[in-house]
Amino acid sequence: MKILILLCLGYGLAAADLDALVAYGLERHPALAAARERIDATRLGRDAATVLPDPEFSIAPLGAMAQTAAGEVTLMMGLRQRFPTWGSRRAQGALVDAAVMGARAEERAAAVNAARDIRRAWWVLYEAEAAVQVLEQQRQAVADLARVVEARIAANAAGSADLLRLQVESGRLAAESDRLAAEVSAAQARLRASLVLDADQALPKVDADPLAPIDADLLALARQFHPGFARNDAARADALAGLDAARSRARPGFSVFANYNIVDDTGLAPSATGEDQWWVGVGMSVPLWQGSYGAGTSAAEGRSRAAVSDRAALDAWLRGEVAAARALWIGAGDQYRRYNDEIVPRARQALAASRSAYGAGTGSFTDLMVAWQQVLGLDMQTLRLRRQTGVARSEVLAVVGLVLNKELEGALQ
Prior knowledge:
This protein is an alpha+beta fold and about 425 residues long. It has 10 helices and 7 strands. α4 packs antiparallel against α9 (about 365-400). The radius of gyration is 38 Å and the shape is elongated.
């Protein structure tokens, strides 16, 4: 798929589907690159959070040292290694893991937003380019009608006013084509920006079906894929880790130390031997002030309860958003089908009948122009409805939290 996209972007020849275009854009999107860097940087913090504290070395070379029977102490040295309270390093590691979960949720959110932007930009470009093609077809239709009018004028069956009116319509179509050409250029620029492409890089010819079915439990998919739930999972994990960390601070910590004193044999006592002193010991921190530990525990428990409430609120909000997005997509699709399958074909039949009647001298030029303008307007409305249906389908994917259609297909298997 990546090779296909590269061929599309390099030469503008091959066709790709919209999913492949989205995948290519996400692969090079700077927001996702930044999100991935944040994940890696956060993950690396786990080692720093879980290692033992550095040992402490102390030395006292100056001062009024002790006079002992063995002599005078001239230098005191010590080495201490502290061991955090039981479970504290595990809790610190869990806090980092929760932060990594949060960073991954943000990466997912960035991917969903970028995918939605790419799809929107492509559908806008599709409508503008298709509208240009419709206008070109209608300009050709006007030219064909002009030949029919000229033939009737030559036969004294029509007046020059009919031809002048066609010329006015041709000029109006030319002006509209110029306006749409500017819209195409603007839409191309926006799509290139969404794909992080240079201004001179060709865009591939992409096809997409706005009516591609989504036969799935969308709310269940949202609970699985929506980044809001991943953020909530990270918040709950952070609260639980914070609770564990607060409880661990209420437990005693330990330290192991070793001291060494250098003794000079020139002490005051006649029996000074200069025998150095050394000893080892164990220390313990006493969690005496429980107020701070209790406050930390209460705060962590509060964050945990808040995360549970936030999840319920998110679930309720998504229930409405998913239903609304699906309803808008289905409604737009029904409208598009009605125009594309029923209204436009009938309007074309009416135009063909009006043209035949005008050519045979049994129909008026006004009826012919009304039928032609109706077809033009309906063609444009059909394009708008197709674009709206495609955008609405993209919104369904974004609300659910899906980036690519293959995620939907995988969920259905």
